[in-house]
Each structure stands twice: as structure tokens, then as C-alpha cells.
Amino acid sequence: MTPTLTISQATSDADFAAAADLIDSRDDNHHPLDRAALAKARLLLLAWLDDTPVGCGAIKAGEGEVAELGYLVVASGYRRLGIGARLTQARIDWASAQGIKLLWATVRAENQASRENLLKAGWQFYGDYLSIRGTGNTIGWYVLPLMQGLDIQALMAGPIGNRTPVIQGSGEPD
Ligand SMILES: CC(C)(COP(=O)(O)OP(=O)(O)OC[C@H]1O[C@@H](n2cnc3c(N)ncnc32)[C@H](O)[C@@H]1OP(=O)(O)O)[C@@H](O)C(=O)NCCC(=O)NCCS
User: Fold this and answer.
1) Does 101 sit in the ligand 1 pocket, CB within 6 Å?
2) What single-letter DSSP state applies at residue 33?
3) Would you kindly state where each structural domain of the chain is located, as residue ranges?
4) I want to staple 128 with a disulfide (CB 3.0 to 4.6 A). Which of 21, 62, 122, 166 is the partner?
5) Residues of the chain with pLDDT under 50
6) What residues form DSSP beta bridges with 74?
7) Number of H helices, E strands in the chain
8) In angstroms, rounded to a whole number, what is the distance separating the alpha carbons of residues 119 and 125?
């Protein structure tokens, strides 16, 4: 029988542990998971193939009308099947229903899969900024307005803080 994909909200300790294991299994170079921060997420979704957790995605801890997407992982054997896109759309739908006005997310410059996943879901590139961790990494910032007429720059002023923008083409001429 074809396995069934379901997306459900994490509620139990076992759900949170399953999501944490998925996040810790990430194959790219990421910083260690802060499990206490994950536990405070506004929303944590798990994707299940029958009884197997194969993906997760969250709206990170915080409050108010601007919210951050994060913790999106699909287990390596289950990628390019639309699971990441389903997790992203489900989080967008949840945020809209909560009255959240603007979503934002950050993606490391080299993470093409994640960037394409956001752009495909209708997100806009907001800007490249240097990582606040002082690593010299470029982080791409993306936004998705959930209503019209927003002053995106004003709403993003808080999350962006005093990060340094990376200006394309600002290096020495060849
Ligand atoms: C990013 C990630 C969650 C995508 O999950 P996924 O289930 O494979 O994504 P989907 O199958 O839903 O793909 C949706 C779209 O995203 C884009 N995409 C996904 N993987 C891609 C890849 N490797 N290269 C280019 N585009 C990709 C495509 O546009 C794709 O649509 P298509 O398959 O119709 O072309 C997955 O690659 C992953 O877990 N990566 C490691 C963890 C990570 O980087 N998380 C994000 C941190 S910001």
C-alpha cells in the first residue's frame, strides 16, 4: 500500500524529541540545536509517512504580528517529494489563521534547496546580511507578507537589528 503523508502539530514530548532528532540529523554545517528554544516554538509541525517522522518545520518562539519560520528539515531519504513544500505551506496557513502579518526566514547563501523552497512558495528576497555569529557567512533574509500594504522595512527593523548588509558587487574591481 502507498504510505500516507500527514502533517500534524507536535504536542507530546515524543513529538518534540522526534523533531529534535530530525534537526540534529541535518547534513549541512549548522550550529547545535537549542532544544529549550525548540520547545518554545509557536508552532512545531511534523510530517509523518505512516508512523515514521520524515520532516519537521516550525514557527519560532516569539509573539506579535511578525514571526520567523525555522527548523525545516526533511530526512535525507525523503527529499524532493514535496514534503518540505507541504511543511512550509502548512506553517503559512497557520500563521495567516493566527493573524500574523509578516513571516521571515533566513537561509545560508549556499543552501539552494531551502532558498528555492521559499521562492517557490511565493517568498521575496529581502537582503543579504553578514551572520551575527561573526563567522563571515552571508545569510539571505526572505519575507512573506500575509496581507497587503505592509511597511515591510519597518516591520523587519527589529529582526534585522544592526546586522551588516552584504552589498553585491561591492568588492574590488577585477
Ligand atoms: C530544504 C529541504 C527542507 C527541502 O525539503 P524537500 O522535501 O526536499 O523539498 P520539496 O520536495 O518540497 O521541494 C520544494 C521545492 O524546493 C526546491 N528544492 C528542494 N530541494 C532542492 C534542491 N536540492 N535543489 C534545488 N531546489 C530544491 C524545488 O523548487 C522544489 O520544487 P520541485 O521539486 O518541484 O522542483 C531539504 O532539502 C532539507 O531538509 N535540507 C537540509 C536542512 C535544511 O537546509 N533546512 C533549511 C534550513 S534554512
Assistant:
1) no
2) P
3) 5-160
4) 166
5) 173-174
6) 55
7) 5, 7
8) 8
Residue 11 backbone dihedrals phi, psi, to 5 degrees: -130, -40
Ligand 1 atom closest to 88 (CA): 12
53 half-sphere exposure, CB direction, 13 A CA radius: 22
Please report where in the chains the cell 528554544 appears, as a residue: 37
All three cell numbers of 129, joined, read: 546580511
Please give the number of the atom of ligand 1 that sits closest to the Cα of 119. 29
The CATH class, in words, for 5-160 is: alpha beta
Atom of ligand 1 nearest to the CA of 107: 48
Three-class DSSP category at 113: helix
Q: Is the CB of 109 under 6 A from ligand 1?
A: no
C-alpha to C-alpha distance for 77 and 81, rounded to whole angstroms: 10
Burial readout 95-109 (b: 16 or more C-beta within 10 A, e: otherwise):
beeeebbbbbbbbbe
Report pLDDT for 168.
Answer: 74
Cβ(111) – ligand 1 distance below 6 Å: yes
pLDDT of residue 29: 59
Residue 27 is predicted with a pLDDT of 75
24 lines ligand 1 (CB under 6 A): no
Sheet architecture: strand order including 138-145? 5-9, 43-49, 52-59, 66-74, 102-108, 138-145, 124-130
